[in-house]
Amino acid sequence: MNHPELAGKIEQLGFYLKYDACLPRPVFQFIVLSMAARYKVAFEWVDHVAPARAAGLPEAVIQSLIDDNPSALPSEFSVIARAMDAILSYRSLPSALQDIRLYQTKGLIEIVTLCGFHQLIGVINQSFDVPLPEGAADPFAKKG
Q1: Domain for residue 15, yes or no?
Q2: What is the CATH number of the domain that holds 34?
Q3: How confident is the model at residue 114 (pLDDT cuts 50, 70, 90)?
Q4: Within a domain: residue 11?
């Protein structure tokens, strides 16, 4: 992105969400991979799948995201996925979904913010055709 001032501000928010926020690393990575899978942003998926594994996100969860199979998610991630569905549909979070307060109010706000942030990152990546690293395959390419 050829706009250093704007890129710097985006990077500041991204740094905060990634390193200073209160969400556990597997939850952070789950949200990032969920957003990449939902919008088929290959660069974001490729960039985050190894860190997600390193953070302890279970392989079965990663596979359920790439397979678009939310019914295979364990309950701890299923509730976040349902909250994300409400958030990304611009609907109020039903009180039952606000039970993800095991991350406290700050964590719930961070989940909402991460969804919006990764919509922004996805739009930038897709609009400017950010290429995959050399040798990386598009995980969303149709397999024939």
Answers
A1: no
A2: 1.20.1290
A3: very high
A4: no
